[in-house]
Amino acid sequence: MDIVLIGSGNTATVLGRKSLAAGHRILQVYSRSENHATRLAGSLNAKAVTSVSSIEKNADLLVIALQDEAVADFVQALGVTRSLLTHTAGALSIHEVRNDGDRYGVLYPLQSLRKEIEILPVLTLLVDGNSPSTRDQLTDFASGIAETVIQADDDTRLKYHLAATLVNNFTNHLFAVAESFCEKENISFAVLQPLMEETVLRLQHISPRAAQTGPAFRNDLRTLDKHRRLIKNDPAVSRLYEMFTKEIHKSAPAIRFKP
Known about the structure:
Layout: E1 2-6, H1 10-21, E2 25-30, H2 34-43, E3 47-49, E4 61-64, H3 68-78, E5 84-87, E6 104-109, E7 124-129, H4 132-145, E8 148-151, H5 154-185, H6 193-202, H7 208-211, H8 215-218, H9 221-230, H10 235-251
């Protein structure tokens, strides 16, 4: 397929590299930043464009990889096109890319993407189209660049997006809080890396509920009290600690102690 990428950030870069590796041709990379467009276009053997009026409107596929709030304005500015229009957002309706053309859809990567990584990640794409034929066309394309492809309508995609926020964005915030704590207490955050990796790897074999451990789960009041004294002067950590302790304790089976 002949593809035009709208955007030059993480999503556009990874999808562009995946598409090129699968034998597709990247015609253009559009960005308002000439430097960004030129850099990505150069790596994809494509042409850099910075004007909406210069975008090729007869390409097979136009992938809009912009911030969510910018998609509708871009589609309006683009005008009539023969290309199959797609956006890459998890929380936007498919109809955000509805234009005067009769084909539009979604290619949402359910993955944390970084444009600077050398080894491309395992990719899951959630796909939708405004008609069965468009949906099938996008599914075929996605199957060539992603390891897993799921057809998902707006409601399903939004649910996956929220679940991804919980397991990725929220978890990463906890990592950042832990890193700050380690820095304040002059201990090594890097020492926790094997533990973090093992926690995720374990979930390939058992449910997170079955893997849960820790003082809150065990109702270890003595350890909980020691932790609270240690973080009493850190309101941010204390708030998170109390919230998660309460939720984990509620999820734990009843523990009976012998007298």
